[in-house]
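Quick sanity check, Dabb family protein:
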Amino acid sequence: MSKLSRRNFVSKSSLVAAAALATPAMALAAQDDKDIFIHHVYFWLKNPESAEDKKKLIEGLQKLSTVKTIQKFYIGKPADTNRDVIDRSYSISWMLMFKNKADQDSYQVDPIHLNFVKECSSLWQKVIVYDSVSAV
C-alpha cells in the first residue's frame, strides 16, 4: 500500500466528507417529487409562556417522529422576522415529509400518533394543519 502525502490525504478526506453530506440531498432529489406529501402542523399552546408546556410538546413530537412512514421532520418555533405577511402567533410548528399520501394516511391512524394526541392535546388551544402536494 502506498504512503499518502498529507495533501492527498486532506484532498481525499474532503471528497469523502462532501459525498457523505450530499448523499441525503441527492436521495431526496432522486425521489419522484410529484408524490411527496408535506404535512405542516401549527400549535398554539394554552399557556404560551410556559417553558414546561413547550418542552412537553416538543418531547411528544420527538416521540411522534418515530412513526415509520415519516421521511423527514422538523420541529420549529416562530422565527424572529417581522413583516405584514408573517404570522408569529403560534408556539410550535411540526413539518413532516411523507413519500406519498398513502404514507400520510397511515400516519394518521398509527398508534404512536393516536397516543401523542391523547397525551399532548391538553397542552394546546388551537391547531392548524396545512397539507400540500406538488403543483407541477
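Posting the structure with no commentary besides this: The radius of gyration is 20 Å.
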